[in-house]
Amino acid sequence: MKKVKLILIGEGKVGKTSIIKQFVDETFLEEYIQTFSNDKFLKNIEIDDKNNTELTLEIWDTLGQENSRVVNKIFMKNTNIGLLVYDITNQKSFDELDEFLSQVDEIIGKENIVLGVVANKSDLYEEKVVSTEEGEEYAKKINALFFETSAKDNEVIQNLFKTISIEYAKKNNLININLNDNENLDSNNISNKKDISNINEETNIESNNILKPLNNSQSFSIEKSEINNKKNEEEERCC
User: Comparing C-alpha atoms, which of 139, 101, 143, 3 is closest to residue 60?
Assistant: First the structure.
């Protein structure tokens, strides 16, 4: 089974460890515990049910403190997937992503890695200071996938790792599938339903949630669509 190195990088307290723990153990610790060492976790993930294709993710949790970033560079070597994580309630954690991205580019090269931008703590939507649109635009700019997650509520966590793994497999010709057609992605667990309700109130659109590419980029977001009723469909056929 192919082993893939995945690293989470970002400022301290953005929830990197919590994201990993939720994915690997399906647990969440309410109390914040500072990470003092770069820890490694292993988990197998199935990326193609039809062909029973699996990857072994070697997931690295990095230090977020500024004085530890030199140490982080050592662990970035030979990374296949990089997740840039920020806290939607902390503007500085979002602003610092460029610094972490420059480290990735210096050590690995942006063209040699599959990137994801992770907007964590979507459960704190009422305290949100970084909009979804800002996150999506940034991900689009750096050619990365975009995810809005809640490690606390286990929202989008499983899909985060599965989607980014599939993207890596596609890029490296390990599988040949259309991400949108992958039946194994849980379309009911793509984003925070509380946050979407606010979006719907602003746009006055009743929506169904699906996963789709955003504006032909590699970012992913929630599409808001209204399905025409049968009566209108019949009228259109008549015309």
Answer: 3
CA distance 66 to 70: 9
Mind listing the pLDDT tens digit for each residue in 151-171?
999 999 999 999 999 999 999
CA dist., res. 64 & res. 12, Å (int): 4
Beta strand ranges found along 81-156 (DSSP E): 81-87, 114-120, 145-148
C-alpha distance across the termini of the chain, in Å? 56
The pLDDT value given to residue 111: 93
Total count of domains within the chain: 1
- Residue 33, domain CATH: 3.40.50.300
- Mark out the alpha helices in 129-229 (DSSP H runs): 132-141, 157-171, 193-203
Taking only the tens place, the pLDDT of each residue in 80-138 is 999 999 999 999 999 999 999 999 999 999 999 999 999 999 999 999 999 999 999 99
Calpha distance 25→194 (Å, rounded):
25
For residue 68, give Cα distances in angstroms to 8, 51, 76, 116. Answer: 14, 42, 13, 22
3 state DSSP class of 11: coil
Full domain range(s) for residue 207 = 2-238
Q: Return phi, psi of residue 178, to 5°.
A: -85, 120
Ramachandran sector of residue 93 (left: φ over 0; alpha: ψ -120 to 50; beta: rest): alpha
- Alpha-carbon span 110 to 144, nearest angstrom: 10
In residues, how long is the chain? 239
